[in-house]
Amino acid sequence: MIHERNSKRMTYASRLTMVAGLLISLALLPVVAAGQSLMGRWAATGKTMDNGEVQKAILNLTQNGNDLTGKLVALGYGVDVKGTVTGNHFELFGVGWNDKKPFLVGDLVNGELHGMQWGDAFVARPATAGDELPKQPYLEPPALHTVPYNGLAKTPPMGWNSWNLFAEKIDDQTVRTMADAMVSSGMRDAGYIYVNIDDTWEGVRDAQGNLQANHKFPEMKALADYVHSKGLKLGIYSSPGPRTCGSYPASYGHEAQDANTFASWGIDYLKYDWCSAGNIYKNDALQPVYQKMGEALHATGRPIVYSLCEYGMGSVEKWGADVSGNLWRTTGDIRDEWDSMMANVELQVPTAPYAGPGHWNDPDMLEIGNGHMSEDEYRTHMSLWALVAAPLLAGNDIRSMSASTKAILLNKEVIAIDQDPLGKQASPKKNGDMETWVKRLADGSVAVGVVNLGTSAAKAEVHASDLHLSQAGGKARDLWSHKDVQFKGEVYAATVPSHGVLLLRVW
Ligand code: GLA
Description:
Elements: H1 2-20, E1 40-48, E2 54-64, E3 67-74, E4 78-86, E5 89-94, E6 104-109, E7 112-117, E8 120-123, E9 158-161, H2 163-166, H3 172-184, H4 187-190, E10 194-196, E11 202-205, E12 211-213, H5 220-229, E13 233-238, H6 255-265, E14 269-273, H7 286-300, E15 305-309, H8 316-319, E16 327-329, H9 338-347, E17 360-362, H10 375-387, E18 392-394, H11 403-409, H12 412-418, E19 427-431, E20 434-440, E21 446-452, E22 458-463, E23 476-478, E24 483-485, E25 491-496, E26 501-506
Parallel strand pairs: 9-10, 9-18, 10-13, 13-14, 14-15, 15-16, 16-17
Antiparallel strand pairs: 1-2, 2-3, 3-4, 4-5, 5-6, 6-7, 7-8, 11-12, 19-20, 20-21, 21-26, 22-25, 23-24, 23-26
The structure holds alpha-D-galactopyranose.
């Protein structure tokens, strides 16, 4: 379980570090000769962030022979590490991250460590006594009780989020032009309403403790007004810890104050990301900690969609709705790769009974159009998110979508499956390379997706008996070819390309 939790933390830490470009400098306490121990406490400083602050991290290492174990604690996250040292060369992995490559690789050169952290160069220098992360007072989590439902997200939220493509390179101008494109591309009219700013918008707190935006967002209220003037809604991001995953100031101890700030800016959606709360609380505090912000949002009186982002830890699906969460992540971060996309949607299968109007399981945001999956794979991505009633938050550049990306994101017949008011989450059945997902819909019809997991084209068969319909003699429609199709007796068969999908709606 510990391993599993760590693996869920993995992706936020790795993505954070990769994207924020933390240049870790590791200071080795003793002078290390070949064969000498790397055991000790190491200090790290990193790049200057968009709010003028400097990234920091502390690494504790234990060495046993050539094996290294320990923990890296950065401002925004903590992770157990393990690795090896061979002569002057060391390699470190995040425990449970399942990464094939080490995230920190370096060599000892003239008493300094020189190396790379996910593509960013780092130089190690000696630690000083002052190399500490800021100490945080422990705030006792509140007693549990139910926060009233905010009445929002009767169907899975739809919109756009900045993280998957832009990461820390997001600013006011990009959000405005994205909002324009949401309208001109037809995204808004198809239901994609929320325009969500993810991490790295944050500045520092003023003398009264009010959180300011950094220079990339000169006036958040004016931005919200602009987004609202387009018939869209604005989302923002914070963490229950002292720092976001990108190490920016977050809402720990400032929950009510930040909720009021967000409401005063006109924010309509909050993604609340565990991150550094994991450096303070154990997982048994997840629910009360999330309850705190749920309550604070409720107290503002403004309808604000509440998105819990804690990678599925602590069986969030069982209590997310009690803290007035409208959606909760069930997995680590998605990557724009077939394996990652499939792993995320399959990981949330056990949560199916907990999805429903007002509260949704979230296998993470869409990667459609970001360029690293095939068109067939993106169609499968969209089909599966619709079948499992996932939030549809596009993560691509809406301003420059290709015709194919547009056709996928704007497929109204598929969106209707996602937005079906019954709010059922499909579950899969595997038959060789074919995986069949069936979703019951409000009008008594059924959506069925057959995904070809294999490496070559294969025949997909849909049997009326799999659909729990007494007969499938009525209407059936292929939602990607946009054509009515005909069952032959109890069966409909079609050839599906590798990683492609057959998606039908059957009445
Ligand atoms: C975590 C989340 C991501 C994104 C980043 C931002 O990794 O899971 O979706 O919000 O943090 O730092």
